[in-house]
Write a structure and sequence with these properties.
It is a single chain. By secondary structure, the chain is mainly alpha-helical. It has one domain (24-260, 336-483): Alpha Horseshoe (Serine Threonine Protein Phosphatase 5, Tetratricopeptide repeat), CATH 1.25.40.390. The chain has helices at 24-27, 39-48, 54-59, 62-65, 85-110, 117-138, 157-174, 196-213, 219-230, 257-263, 271-276, 289-292, 304-307, 326-329, 358-370, 378-393, 397-405, 415-428, 433-443, 474-479; strands at residues 69-71, 244-248, 267-269, 293-297, 300-302, 332-333, 351-356. The strands form 3 sheets. It has a 3-stranded antiparallel β-sheet with strand order 5-4-6. Strands 1-3 form a two-stranded antiparallel sheet. Strands 2-7 form a two-stranded antiparallel ribbon. A hairpin with a 2-residue loop joins β4 and β5 (300-302). α8 crosses α15.
């Protein structure tokens, strides 16, 4: 896969003796040479990291475990909960050897300069997002002093989360937005083009996401952090204009959903996704469906009608031997109308990787209001979240209104209302598989199925249970086992059915599709 690399050259100027002229050194410096390093050269590849090894780091793991997608290649182990070190193991090594170094370089070079206060704060907000992804994937990880160059003990996830909240608080409150501040502009900030106030909104919204993540395991802390996020300076993401997403170009080689779905035919819509696009509203088909999905007919996108189907069908997750006609009989991503032109305005051909939608922030507030942690009407916020997603995708207003009118209303703080809220949040978060998988693990909603052909005999997940985390890389077991958690420091005990700290729901206690442990 093609990677975008920014190579930085440090220019050392050799100070010559007094016999040389004062400007002799300048004569040897090309006019277009880089004579100083700026934070933007480190920050841009940090943001681009959402695409790094996307197929192996995301599509073969969180994307499948969220069940937005199902795999259509026979013999792939990850859909049946196998760990493949050469795939997801890249995420660990890339984080600790590349991303963390870049973030530390920004801090070390510019952390004491008052002109870089906003730049440092933005870097901190982004790294809190990135660290949350790492710890939510594995659980306990090396965090404190992880950049020291020494082998350090793994830290428990609770301590990591508490520190992330503290870092977010500091960064959010440090942002000035002043004109004299260095900005990541000129295209180097791929999310907000250096707008520090937009980053402040994202920081508050990320704080709210992480607060709700710990709602079951640490409700007192969750409530406190949710309230701080909602009242934080700058506020939350406030419209679809504030969406945090990283764009790529649609020409050339890029390892993202276009590659997996069309060039490689590795994925198709999951049956779980298809079912929830047809069973939520009395209006029938979710009007986002044809914006997001299409059939592949002679190598081109086709509507369900043109492909000869009565609806958009998804394939079950977890086949060992995938049906040979899967490519033609199940829907794939719609590149022409719903994803490259994802905002629906007909003018932008970029493909985007979502980090946080505005609709997600509304659903987060709805859940916090449902729990009585913040002011607001949970049902109204939930419906606003659905509307925001419809608007973002470019759905016809009448179709959106009909669909929303047919949705069940939320009625109180109970499992049925939470399931409805989380299921609609999960739909709206498509195709953010990282977040979809996290919400399922936290709440056990929506209804995610077990592998069609059963959990693999090579998996470290007990039959009849769900995958809950990704195990540590093999190299950690070979070289750093003494620093790993004592209960997971051997290949036998490092299991993928062990829950991370915030995942307290028991997947075996669901009755009539509802849990009994989310309140």
């Amino acid at each position: 896969m093609k990677k975008i690399n920014i190579i930085l050259f440090a220019l050392g100027l050799i100070m010559l003796g007094s016999s040389c002229s004062d400007d002799f050194g300048d004569l040897n410096v090309p006019s277009d040479a880089t004579t100083s390093v700026e934070p933007k050269f480190f920050f841009s590849p940090l943001v681009q990291a959402v695409f790094d090894n996307y197929q192996r780091n995301v599509n073969l793991y969180p994307d499948l475990y969220s069940q937005y997608w199902a795999n259509t290649v026979s013999g792939f182990g990850s859909p049946r909960y196998e760990y493949v070190d050469g795939w997801i193991g890249n995420q660990w090594s890339e984080h600790y050897t590349k991303d963390l170094r870049r973030a530390n370089s920004i801090q070390d070079l510019f952390g004491e300069d008052p002109s870089y206060v906003d730049a440092i704060a933005i870097k901190e907000i982004w790294m809190c997002y990135w660290w949350s992804r790492i710890t939510d994937t594995y659980g306990d990880v090396p965090y404190f002093d992880a950049s020291s160059g020494e082998a350090v003990p793994y830290n428990n996830q609770k301590d990591i989360y508490y520190d992330l909240f503290a870092r977010l608080n500091t960064a959010i409150n440090a942002i000035t937005g002043n004109a004299d501040q260095y900005t990541y502009n000129d295209g180097y900030d791929l999310i907000y083009d250096g707008d520090a106030m937009q980053w402040q909104k994202f920081g508050n919204s990320l704080r709210l996401r992480l607060a709700m993540r710990i709602s079951n395991v640490d409700p007192t802390k969750a409530q406190s952090e949710a309230q701080a996020a909602v009242s934080g300076p700058g506020g939350l993401l406030a419209s679809n204009d504030d969406v945090a997403r990283v764009g790529m170009w649609s020409q050339g080689w890029y390892d993202y959903l276009h590659q997996m779905a069309w060039n490689w035919n590795n994925i198709r819509m999951s049956k779980t996704m298809s079912d929830n696009l047809y069973n939520q509203s009395t209006a029938g088909e979710d009007p986002r469906t044809p914006r997001w999905f299409a059939y592949q007919v002679e190598g081109k996108p086709a509507s369900k009608e043109d492909a000869g189907f009565d609806r958009y069908y998804g394939i079950e997750n977890g086949y060992n031997l995938v049906p040979s006609d899967a490519d033609e009989n199940f829907a794939t991503i719609n590149l022409e109308g719903g994803y490259i032109d994802f905002v629906g305005n007909g003018t932008d051909d970029k493909m985007y990787c979502p980090v946080m939608f505005y609709s997600e922030v509304l659903f987060l507030q709805a859940e916090a209001a449902m729990r009585g942690w913040i002011a607001g009407d949970a049902n109204a916020l939930y419906l606003e979240g659905v509307q925001a997603s419809m608007d973002y995708v470019g759905v016809d207003p009448t179709a959106a209104a009909d669909y929303i009118a047919g949705l069940p209303a939320l009625s109180g703080a109970n499992e049925a209302s939470l399931k409805q809220l989380i299921t609609q949040k999960w739909v709206a978060n498509f195709p953010n598989g990282v977040e979809g998988w996290a919400d399922f693990r936290r709440t056990d909603y929506p209804d995610i199925t077990l592998p069609k052909d059963g959990v693999s005999g090579s998996a470290t997940v007990a039959p009849g249970t769900w995958v809950k985390r990704v195990r540590y890389p093999i190299n950690e077991h070979l070289q750093n086992s003494e620093n790993m958690p004592a209960t997971q420091n051997t290949p036998e005990t490092d299991r993928m059915d062990i829950k991370v700290w915030w995942d307290t729901a028991d997947t075996k206690t669901k009755t009539s599709g509802l849990m009994s442990s989310n309140f």
